[in-house]
Amino acid sequence: MVAALVASCGFHMQGALTTPAAMERTYIATGDPYSLFYRELRAQLQDAGVQLVDTAAESSATFSILYDETDQRVLSVSARNVPTEYEVYYTVQYAIDGIGNRLLPTQDQTITRNYTYDSRLVLGKAREEELLREAIVKDLVRIVLKQISTL
To answer: How many structural domains comprise the chain?
Structure first.
C-alpha cells in the first residue's frame, strides 16, 4: 500500500549526478583556485566521475567561474551601536562551454544565511560563521550540479 502511494505521488530518489557527454573531460577556469566554491565543485565533479584536466586545450568542456565572492553584512545593531546580527553571503557567477557551443549560459547564484552575534562569544561566533560559509558553498554546488544534470 505504501509503495503504491509513494509511486503515485511522483516521488523518486535523486540518484547520482549525470553529466552530459560533452563534460567527460572538463577544465575549471577560475581566478582563485583556493576558494571554497572551487574546491567543493572540483571534489563533487570528481566524485561524479568527471575527468578534470589541467588545460582548456585538452578538455571537452570548460566550466568558467566568472565571479566568486563571499562576505558578511551587519543586519542589526544594539542601542549602543554594537552589531548583534550578521548576514553571511556567497555569490558565484559561472558558465559552461563545450567545443563550439555554450552548454549553460551565464548563471548568477547567491545564498545568504543570518546569525546572531555576541561579543562575549567571539571564538564560537567566528567558527559559526565559518560553518555557515561551508554550508552555503555545499548548497551552491548542489544547485550547480542539479543544473548540470539537466543538460
So the answer is: 1
Backbone angles phi, psi at 127, to 5 degrees: -65, -40
Q: Is the dihedral of CA 132, 34, 94, 146 positive or negative?
A: negative
Model confidence over 43-63: pLDDT tens digits?
A: 999 999 999 999 999 999 999
Q: What is the pLDDT of residue 92?
A: 98
Give the domain CATH number at 61.
3.30.160.150
pLDDT surpasses 60 at 12: no
Domain hosting residue 90, numbered range: 18-149
Please check whether residue 59 lies inside any domain of the structure: yes
Residue 3 lies in a domain: no
Placement of cell 577560475 in the chain? 30
Round to whole Å and give the CA distance between 136 and 144.
12
pLDDT tens digits, one per residue of 79-138: 999 899 999 999 999 999 999 999 999 999 999 999 998 878 878 888 899 999 999 999
| 136 in a structural domain | yes
Cell readout for 55 is 588545460
